[in-house]
Fold this sequence. Notes:
Elements: H1 2-31, H2 35-48, E1 50-53, H3 64-71, E2 79-80, E3 85-90, E4 94-101, E5 108-112, E6 117-121, E7 132-135, E8 148-152, E9 157-164, E10 170-177, E11 186-188, E12 192-194, E13 198-203, E14 214-218, E15 224-225, E16 230-234, E17 239-241, E18 244-248, E19 253-257, E20 262-265
Parallel strand pairs: 1-3, 2-4, 12-20
Antiparallel strand pairs: 3-10, 4-9, 5-8, 5-10, 6-9, 7-8, 11-13, 13-16, 14-15, 14-18, 17-20, 18-19
Amino acid sequence: MFIRLLKVLIVTTLLIFVNGCNSFIENYDRETTAPIAIDQSLCSILNEMKSITVTSFKVDSLSTLELFDSLIVDTSSFVSLSNINNWSIDEDSTSYFIMYFPQEADSYYVALDQSSEFEIYDYGGQSKGPDNLNISLTNIAGCSDMRMRYVYSNLYGAYLAKIVNYSSSSVKLAILNNNTPPYADFTVSSSTAFVGDTLNFVSTSQSGAYEITAYNWNFGDNNSSNDSSFVYHSYADSGTYTPSLTVSDGYLYDTIYKPGSIVIAPGDSE
């Protein structure tokens, strides 16, 4: 009798464990992005996205702490997580700047388009080495615009970064983590209307690892709104319009376009 009860207990425990693991895996998959998708995104950011010039410090005679204190005051110049732009660092030898990792994540990925010496330091001056480093003279993951890729764990907050490059006038850098970005989508109260009719645009977007904090609507007629997750809009002219919605968690963005989805017919005044 005791052995039978023990077997039942073991089987029950295993079932609970397996179900718990399945639940954990499902939640993990929903909140993180696969490495291959991250490489594709890093390539796109380096190759296709706009570049923002970084305010860097060229003096190499100060201590790590002095450099940190000099740069930390200007938060607008921080190099940070973004899937809509890369960062361009002017180079003549050595450049220092602040990198800001705003979200807790299992992994952060830093990609450079030039082979360079790259290091980051915490406020105490300790170097934070990567968990993984990939260097190539031609390409990484099939991307000719990505020559170096660092993978870090346990990064959060502000760090002092250093890039040394003697052969290029600038280095482009991209930062991503493996958190799932938000997913943009929306509905419209009607796909057809007359000039002057009011249409209701409602976001059906989904948050990723972090909650959506911003909605940016573009109605396709040179008008836009960032009021909330639902907005009202009327068109002043007849025609076919392509509305779009961009959502963001503050650092990661997603945009959806719906080409030609709104058709406006002439009203009585046209």
